[in-house]
């Protein structure tokens, strides 16, 4: 399609430019506000900006990465403490350098607190962070901020020392933080956060270290907290522990959850709410503590319903947009139906014979010897040995409970207690982690849905591919497998199609061996056949060997050149397809004794 | 030295009671209730208000406060059982952060943020061992923790209702299909643990720092203690609470390490988690 060439390039430039444009517009608006607002509101506005940056950080750790962090203002206190200390020590470089140092220090503390989180998830992390917040709060009261006893005010940056100037400065910091978060969220780190929130197994199986994903989320979040605290130190000039209590951290967490703070605009909105609600209450003569009562109640509402403001608004918007594109697609389909000549004829009318198994001369892509997995008294896999020739499709069949999925789990490294040796193209995998195996070129898909719904198809495919791929490559592989276009959001795609996207993405990763665990489950019969036809072409087209677990014998017959049959954890037969299917033992196990092929 | 350790035992008993409640909640209704201490705190404050403002007798005020704490806990449980019955532990637990925030702020509004003039229900020394005085409060909290743990264990293993509760916690859907009334039962668990926590807090509050934050944040050492039993074992939760209390008492004696005292529950949590979860690698069974 030659006419499409200039389109993607332009939209790419636009995609790079618009966040910058928004940031610049924000800074300009901030400047106008800093000139136009009255002095009292300027001070409040700085508070809103500092809160927004802290919430931006919470959005990453709680919103994107799905962990509960209840100590955001403790990280802010670390930032403020470092800024105060550098101010007292008169460290050269001025406020900007101190602020960055404060952010970095908070990031380091975040990593230290997050280190136990490497293995932990969910509620345990909430306990750890709440414990940290409580402990640090008491300690802060005892040690105080540097310079607070002698009343040494924190020096604001040169040129921004008035309240108005400082507000403008804080807006610039917010814009920079917003841009950084935007790019991180769109990049590998962002994808890894959303993936780890959905499934750790799924994340590891595409070669992304789960630990790294969690730690980066925690560190970036804490660093943003530190910057927020540093800004606050410059705002009030003499920070006190009362600005960083655990109670406020709890409120900030709740606010982040209910506003949907992983969305940058909602983080800023949350920052405004943080200041607006107490201010309104004050004007109405209501005690300001009611603000947190309101936050608490709204937080319960948000957490019970699993919704938040930002996502709610976006869902409404997307619904309308999806309606429009669906209508457009319908029209296009109708047009195509009106001109049948334009439609390509079906690729293969009759099924060609299965490509013969490649000559056994080359090194096998995957060789397994003596693989044994024991769960208690049960041997799920018992001395399994097989070879997958390079460039072939091997079918792995067997009745339910035969050990097929256990085989995939063991090969891909999720069962560290498995014994036996697995060699991937000559490299012994030993006790390597799933992440490392995936990076070496051993990929797998799951029977369950392990495709993070928070990503778009494009972001997911690029995340799984783990290499530089062009937009054309992505579009091509999606088209090849009949997946929805790259811009589609995975949340709006049914589970069967998600698993198809999973297969397509893993194929694009060009591994040596790809293990597909019932990829067709959830697809219609036609899609099922279509997938089979595509899989036949994959080895030649993308250069990899495939191990296919599948129940549909017809499909296996048309796709797989070699077969391995498992029964009760043992290899019943392994070899070229026709020989295996003719084996009486296989017939007996697979079809039952009475029924003959 | 010994005096310090035993002084910490009263707090340790409180940690142990709360830890037993947390463990019970985690086992039976799949939640780590962050507002466990906050409901007790609120009930206790209401009791103080009743006694000082309306002049009701201490015992009556305390009973009413404790009952209110049970009701509050029940309301949170009702929310969890109604809208989060199918949700995972993390989501259910995160929900309880809301009531924690709400109750602390509400108590600021109603009672101010100063420590409350709790009247002692129990006071004075119980007995003396080797020249060291054991207070009645210590005796009561420690025995309360042990009695609750033992009673709960008997209830769960020996009675019909215990069997139902266990069925509910292990196979909620199956239990419901068998006709076990899951919602009333789980709300009852919330109410009972709310009452028990409140009793412990009302007993110990006169001898502790008893502002709203300090009392609500008792959830941290309580969670640390519950972690020793992995939120599963009641006996280890009791031991964890007592050990943590004694350790805090010991550390408080030495000025040089007083900063460590603040971080003691946190360090306890981190070390325990790293130890108990050292073998846990993946988030899902498959």
Automatic annotation (TrEMBL), chain A:
Keyword Nucleotide-binding tagged: yes
Localization annotation: Cell membrane
SMART domains, A to Z: AAA
TM region positions: 16-34, 40-61, 68-89, 95-118, 125-145, 165-184, 215-238, 250-277
InterPro entries reported for this sequence: AAA+_ATPase, ABC_AA/LPS_Transport, ABC_transp_permease, ABC_transporter-like_ATP-bd, BCA_ABC_TP_C, LivM-like, P-loop_NTPase
Keywords annotated in UniProt: ATP-binding, Cell membrane, Membrane, Nucleotide-binding, Transmembrane, Transmembrane helix, Transport
Any one GO MF annotation of this record: ATP binding
Protein name: Branched-chain amino acid ABC transporter ATP-binding protein/permease
From TrEMBL, chain B:
Signal peptide range: none
Pfam families: BPD_transp_2
Intracellular or extracellular location(s): Cell membrane
Membrane-topology annotation of the record: Multi-pass membrane protein
Key words of the record: Amino-acid transport, Cell membrane, Membrane, Transmembrane, Transmembrane helix, Transport
Membrane-crossing residue ranges in chain numbering: 6-24, 31-52, 58-81, 93-112, 132-156, 187-206, 212-229, 236-254, 260-276
Keyword Transferase included in the entry's annotation: no
Keyword Metal-binding: no
Family: Belongs to the binding-protein-dependent transport system permease family. LivHM subfamily.
Name by which UniProt lists this protein: Branched-chain amino acid ABC transporter permease
Organism name: Agromyces soli
């Amino acid at each position: 399609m030659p006419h499409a060439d200039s389109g993607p390039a332009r939209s790419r430039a636009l995609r790079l430019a618009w966040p910058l444009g928004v940031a610049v517009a924000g800074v300009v608006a901030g400047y106008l506000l800093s000139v136009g607002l009255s002095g009292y509101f300027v001070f409040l506005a700085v508070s809103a900006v500092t809160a927004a940056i802290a919430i931006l950080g919470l959005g990453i750790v709680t919103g994107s990465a799905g962990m509960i962090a209840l100590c955001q203002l403790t990280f802010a206190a670390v930032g403020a403490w470092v800024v105060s200390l550098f101010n007292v020590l008169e460290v050269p470089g001025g406020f900007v350098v101190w602020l960055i140092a404060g952010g970095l220090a908070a990031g380091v503390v975040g990593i230290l607190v997050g280190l136990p989180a490497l293995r932990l998830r969910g509620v345990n992390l909430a306990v750890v962070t709440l414990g940290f917040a409580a402990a640090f709060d008491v300690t802060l009261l005892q040690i105080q901020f540097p310079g607070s006893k002698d009343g040494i005010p924190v020096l604001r940056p040169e040129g921004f020392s008035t309240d108005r100037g400082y507000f403008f400065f804080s807006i610039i910091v917010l814009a920079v933080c917003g841009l950084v978060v935007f790019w991180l969220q769109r990049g590998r780190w962002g994808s890894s956060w959303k993936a780890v929130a959905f499934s750790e197994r799924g994340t590891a199986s595409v070669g992304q270290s789960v630990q790294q994903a969690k730690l980066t989320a925690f560190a970036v979040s804490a660093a943003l907290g530190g910057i927020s605290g540093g800004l606050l130190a410059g705002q009030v000039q003499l920070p006190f522990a009362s600005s960083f209590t655990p109670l406020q951290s709890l409120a900030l967490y709740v606010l982040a959850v209910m506003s949907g703070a992983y969305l940058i605009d909602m983080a800023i909105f949350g920052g405004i709410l943080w200041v607006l609600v107490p201010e309104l209450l004050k004007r109405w003569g209501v005690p300001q503590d009611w603000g947190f009562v309101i936050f608490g109640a709204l937080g319960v509402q948000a957490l019970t319903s699993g919704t938040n403001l930002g996502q709610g608004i976006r869902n409404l918007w997307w619904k309308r947009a999806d309606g429009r594109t669906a209508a457009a697609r319908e029209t296009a389909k109708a047009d195509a139906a009106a001109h049948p000549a334009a439609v390509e004829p079906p690729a293969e009318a009759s099924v060609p014979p299965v490509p013969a198994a490649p000559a056994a001369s080359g090194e096998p892509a995957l060789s397994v010897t003596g693989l044994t997995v024991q769960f208690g008294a049960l041997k799920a896999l018992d001395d399994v040995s097989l070879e997958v020739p390079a460039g072939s499709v091997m079918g792995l069949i067997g009745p339910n409970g035969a050990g097929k999925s256990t085989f995939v789990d063991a090969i891909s490294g999720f069962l560290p207690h498995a014994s036996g040796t697995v060699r991937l193209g000559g490299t012994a995998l030993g006790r390597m982690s799933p992440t490392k195996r995936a990076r070496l070129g051993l990929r797998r898909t799951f029977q369950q849905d392990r495709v993070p719904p928070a990503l778009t198809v494009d972001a997911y495919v690029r995340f799984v591919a783990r290499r530089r791929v062009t937009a054309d490559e992505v579009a091509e592989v999606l088209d090849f497998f009949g997946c929805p276009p790259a811009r589609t959001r995975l949340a709006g795609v049914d589970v069967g199609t998600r698993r198809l996207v999973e297969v397509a993405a893993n194929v694009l990763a060009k591994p040596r061996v790809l293990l597909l665990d019932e990829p067709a489950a959830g697809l219609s019969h036609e899609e099922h056949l279509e997938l089979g036809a595509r899989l036949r072409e994959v080895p030649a087209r993308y250069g990899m060997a495939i191990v296919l677990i599948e129940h549909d014998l017809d499909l296996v017959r048309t796709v797989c050149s070699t077969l391995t049959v498992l029964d009760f954890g043992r290899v019943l037969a392994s070899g070229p397809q026709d020989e295996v299917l003719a084996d009486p033992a296989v017939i007996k196990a697979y079809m039952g004794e009475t029924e003959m092929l | 030295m010994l005096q310090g350790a035993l002084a910490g035992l009263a707090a340790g008993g409180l940690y142990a009671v709360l830890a037993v409640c947390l463990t019970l909640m985690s086992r039976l209704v799949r939640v780590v209730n962050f507002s466990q201490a906050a409901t007790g705190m609120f009930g206790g404050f209401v009791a103080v208000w009743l006694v000082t403002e309306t002049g009701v007798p201490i015992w009556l005020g305390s009973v009413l406060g404790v009952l209110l704490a049970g009701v509050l806990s029940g309301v949170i449980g009702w929310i969890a059982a109604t809208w989060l019955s199918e949700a995972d532990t993390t989501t259910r637990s995160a929900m309880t952060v809301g009531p924690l925030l709400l109750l602390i702020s509400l108590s600021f509004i109603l009672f101010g943020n100063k420590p409350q003039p709790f009247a002692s229900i129990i006071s004075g020394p119980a007995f003396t061992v080797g020249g060291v005085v054991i207070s009645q409060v210590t005796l009561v909290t420690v025995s309360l923790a042990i009695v609750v743990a033992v009673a709960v264990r008997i209830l769960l293993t020996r009675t019909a209702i215990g069997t139902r509760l266990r069925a509910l916690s292990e196979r909620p859907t199956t239990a419901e299909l068998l006709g076990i009334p899951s919602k009333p039962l789980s709300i009852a668990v919330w109410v009972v643990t709310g009452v028990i926590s409140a009793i412990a807090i009302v007993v110990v509050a006169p001898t502790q720092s008893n502002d709203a934050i300090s009392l609500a944040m008792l959830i941290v050492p309580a969670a640390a203690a519950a972690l020793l039993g992995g939120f599963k074992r009641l006996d280890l939760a009791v031991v964890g609470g007592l050990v943590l209390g004694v350790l805090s008492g010991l550390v408080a004696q030495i000025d040089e390490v007083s900063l460590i005292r603040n971080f003691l529950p946190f360090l306890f949590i981190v070390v325990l988690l790293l130890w108990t979860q050292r073998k846990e690698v993946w988030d899902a069974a498959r």
